[in-house]
Amino acid sequence: MRADRWVFGGVLATVAALAVGGVAAAVGDQAGTAMLWAILGTGAAGVALAARASSLAVVIACLLAALEVRDTAPYGTWAVAGGLLFLFALRRPLFDAVAAGVLIAASALSSTYVPWWASGGEGAFGFVALVVAAVGVGQWVQAQRRYVVAEVGRRRQEAESRRQEVARHVAEERLRIARELHDSVAHHLAVVSVHTNVARANLTRSPQVAERALGDVQAATQSVMEELGVVLGVLRASESDPVPPTPVDAAMIDDLLRSFEGIGLRVRADGLDHLLALAPLALTAAQRLLQEALTNAQRYGDGAAAVVVDAPVNGYVTLSVRNAWVPGETTSAGSGLGLVGMEERVHLLGGTFHAGPDTDGFLVSAQLPATAPRTLKETRA
Question: Partners of 317 in the beta sheet?
Fold first, then answer.
């Protein structure tokens, strides 16, 4: 009860009113009268019932109101009736509180105006005012509590929504960084691996070839360091906005294809000019998709891959990469995250993605959103 300051205050005030009535019953004009002590005892029982919001407290309050109007000798019982009603209205619905108030007011008025019951007492309208005040204050406190509970719930929900939003952004950024790391590092490490083997095989037989291979290893390592620097910059950035990706152009696509040819992958490309019809973000995704698909072709294929880019149709450019693939013959086991990353990139742009074996080998195909077509010469100029 002490946890609820309004209930505690109401009980304390009602007990004080009973104490005043007890003193009046002990030293007043009608001291020692059994009826007075019965009234005070009934009021004390009403306090215990009202603290639990029992309906019996309303019955006791009605009795006290009627007796107080008929005979005001036990001073303080009027306040006891009001306290009982307040405690009842504090924790009951509006209808119950108003009904209890009407009953108590009717009891007080009947003691004044009902012919066979009235005794000519006064103060009935004072009881009516007390009833209105007790019901009004009790319901106002309830309304304030409901508002506080609703406000706390709303703020808690907002905090949870913000937490989930932050977690979602963090997860999306982690996925983006994971895709960037996988797509860039996997390719460059494949280049490093191939050229390292070339350099080892030609250290004594052909130092010039070994030196050229080591130069390619150094260039690939430098590329890895640069791309890792970009990723680390994203991780260390204090701004919430993601760092925009590096723009991709035709020269980067050509360099990418030459880098694969430099490690022994024969790439046949058709329709690369159509890539320039892609939106900037879609062109970046296409470059990463080419990089990952050709890396897989170099690892798992027979040393050849075909790249086909179809002209834009209905606002989409279709990019396909096919290579030979024989199940069970590869000695290099991948994580499978590359295909997942490609699919995520394409779906984020609103395109479609497919990867899997077909009758001619292993096919990676994606539809990416396009803008107004441009020619290769216009871009390079």
Answer: 368
